[in-house]
Amino acid sequence: MPLPPAPAKRAALLNTEGLDAAITTKSRNARKSAVRPKQASTAEISVAPQEAKAVSPVSRKPISIPANKVERKTSPKKKHTGPAKLFVLDTNVLMHDPMCLFRFEEHDVYLPMIVLEELDGHKKGMTEVARNARQTSRSLDALVASHEADILTGIQLDGTGHIEVSGRLFFQTEPLDFTLPSSLPQGKADNQILGVVEALRVKHAPREVVLVSKDINMRVKARALGLAAEDYQNDKTLEDGDLLYSGAMALPEDFWLKHAKEVESWQSGSHTFYRLSGPLVPDLHINQFVYHESAGEPSLYARVTEIRGNTVVLKTLKDFTHLKNAVWGVTTRNREQNFAMNLLTDPEIDFVTLTGTAGTGKTLMALAAGLTQVLDDRRYTEIIMTRATVSVGEDIGFLPGTEEEKMGPWMGALDDNLEVLAKTETSAGEWGRAATNDLIRSRIKVKSLNFMRGRTFLNKYLIIDEAQNLTPKQIKTLITRAGPGTKIICMGNLAQIDTPYLTEGSSGLTYAVDRFKGWPHGGHITLARGERSRLADFASEVL
Description:
Elements: H1 17-34, H2 49-52, E1 53-55, E2 62-64, H3 67-74, E3 86-89, H4 91-96, E4 108-111, H5 113-121, H6 128-146, E5 155-156, E6 168-171, H7 189-203, E7 209-212, H8 216-224, E8 228-230, E9 248-250, H9 255-259, E10 264-268, E11 271-277, E12 289-292, E13 300-308, E14 311-316, H10 335-344, E15 351-356, H11 362-376, E16 382-387, H12 403-406, H13 412-423, H14 429-442, E17 444-446, E18 460-465, H15 472-479, E19 487-492, H16 508-515, E20 522-527, H17 534-542
Parallel strand pairs: 3-4, 3-7, 4-6, 7-8, 9-12, 15-19, 15-20, 16-17, 16-18, 18-19
Antiparallel strand pairs: 1-2, 5-6, 10-11, 11-14, 12-13, 13-14
Helix pairs in contact: 10-11, 11-13, 15-16
């Protein structure tokens, strides 16, 4: 862009006419160059001179612009070209995810009148379902208020700022004629929704009309009647064919043979660093563990600390299997436990997720690392432990006492592990162990999830046990409580989910593992081997 002409007088204001003229010329040239014919290939392409040239504002000579740069600026975003579907939503989908109306991209959404009636019947109360029903009602009210035309033509779903959707929302505004088998009770809400889907399929043929429901029996009945039905998939972090990020990766056996020439190594303190490049780098993430075990060669256990372009830096680990590195008297017994302990004791890691079957040592290691950093290192002021109060069997009803006393029955795992940790101190005698137990319990607070909203934890060591029973929304609520200097550990067994409507793919723990993957201050490890007892290990395999 040319500079404006110099001032004619001392301390005179700059003349902006030249600058405005240059901006006008540049915008005009940009508008002209934006109109380009569609290119056939990215190879050698001949373009018209006026389309591939631009004028330099200084020399006024034509300069060449690479064809690929022009194409990258003006190529439109690839959109779906097939016919838009009409999705009929069941009530349970709206109460499961209040934002589901905006998850169908270019497709249209249809709400039967009976769905609105059921939504109105579930809006009272303090449960998660009631809150979602109220949120859905508010979203519908905002959409209707933003629509100025006739509601019969459909409401644009992007009217409230959700620009990622381009479909319309339709309400049932007239009675629909449908015929269902006489074996289905006509007054039941599910059967009325099925009748609406059948009537829409006939009315809008050949357009595809799909029922979306979280109710398995509802989908089975729909398919038995020849209607298209699907589960609501947007709440699933992982598809059935995907594998959850494990946090560790085995290096190939010929790793050193392929990387010996291009590897750099240096020593810093007790750790050794390796910088290397190769085809393995794109598959790695920050804070992912790598290991190389081969007969006749020294084993390598390292963590990815830096990824820049096609190079990666590996840092060797501290060996917590050795007794001299015991954490509160606890030593790790296998490779994955050693990985987990390196994450739990690293002050640069603010968020740790641990998954694994029963008896892999998740709670014991988290508590041992927490006690060491609270009582010995004084890195945190206290340990806060919480968990989702979801019963395996029948609920035992209301419990008396304070918040901590009410959480007592749910914290059996805490008592069991504290008993193990208290026995590691053998030299203090009976009185010394009693004093240690009192000191430990004074630094551990048990809190309920119900009272976490609005709190901020400063310099705390927060343990969230049984996190597989939490929804993604609950996980977000807990993690966002962290203030400066706080470390959060989420633990759980994805094979033991007790919350209704949650699966391995939609659990909040799975959501957290997937979203924090590769964050420089977060780490994850899947514990594979159980160390509780041979009975527990065998039961996990065969039952």
